[in-house]
Amino acid sequence: MGRSAVELPLVCRAISFEREDGAAMGYLIGMDEAGYGPNLGPLVITASLWEVPGEPRAFDFWSALESVVSNSRPRRNSELLHVADSKEVHSSAKGLGPLERSTFPFLQMVNDADQVDSLGKLWRLLIASPTHLDAIQEHPWNGDDRFALPTAVETEGTRDSQQKLQTALDAAGIKLKALCSEIVLPERFNHLCREYGSKGVMLTRLCMQLLTRVWDRNSDEPTLIIGDKHGGRNRYDEYLDEILDGEMIFRVEESTARSIYRVGATEIRFQTKAEAHFPVAVSSMVCKYTREVMMELFNQFWSEHVPDIKPTKGYPVDARRFKSEIAAAQAELEISDQILWRGQ
Fold it and tell me: How far is the C-alpha of 297 from the C-alpha of 210, rounded, in Å?
């Protein structure tokens, strides 16, 4: 591993940080992904960046925002936003409504964003690398901005929720600074898997690249980065080393439960059940929402060419069924497997 990791005594994790003007603050970054396993549709990875008062490792989003959010399913007719692992917020049986209701207010408050009223605007809001935007829009089923958002809830309701959420964030001294995503379509997915040798390495490297978009490595403010563990991987220092400019990486812990590193004023954690942390949960929901909406558009496109075809979520068994049923239309439209099918 060379210089990429040095053991760090646990006592170093207790360092306190404070600005010279006495106003303590810090940053939290939460990362998650959706769509790692399917054969159809995009892989979406999202990072959310938050500014919080005080030491970020001690900050409790759930208590600070308990008037507007809940990490357990709210009771019926509750106005609380359900913020949790997207697998808990979204269910196919209930459709997109619950996930959209809880996710859309966050999308509406990023950097005074224009109204996110179409999928095209959502891409432009989130996309980490503008050079990839054209490639996404060139796909036959993506096209232009005609796919309107939100799809299952009323815009007025999401605006009301967004205003209440913003009021609570302001009262708690919290700022949502950025939402940033990698949206990886099949052709790029397959290319990166071949280049990196496996989709596990691809996921880790894409996460590291996404970090460079939201992490100010030169900041003296304390920063906490939290992401989910990538399969069985326990060591991440060599991949961190690839995005750093020679900074020393201190290894605090590496285990099946969590891997923790420090770089300057930043602590980086990869852990199981990371979605228990609010910033990761929000990123999880944004990932899932973006993928689900893109799959709706994908299914809408194919239903126009193959009437009465059953929609797909893109996961392996059903993806093969779907691909078989669209085969004749795919050939007629001259759509290659290269842009359709994830083979890894």
Answer: 25
Domain span holding position 145: 2-295
We report the CATH number of the domain holding residue 257 as 3.30.420.10
Q: Specify the pTM.
A: 0.92
How far apart are the C-alpha atoms of 89 and 82, rounded to whole Å? 7
DSSP at 77:
T
Pair of tokens at residue 7 = 């053991």
- Summarised one tens digit per residue, pLDDT across range 239-276 is 999 999 889 999 999 999 999 999 999 999 999 999 99
Helices H / strands E in the chain, number of each:
12, 10
For the chain, give percent helix, strand, coil, nearest 5. 45, 20, 35
C-alpha 7/C-alpha 293 separation (Å) is 44
The answer as to whether 301 is a domain residue is: no
Please give the DSSP secondary-structure letter assigned to residue 81: E
* Residue at 318 is within a domain: no
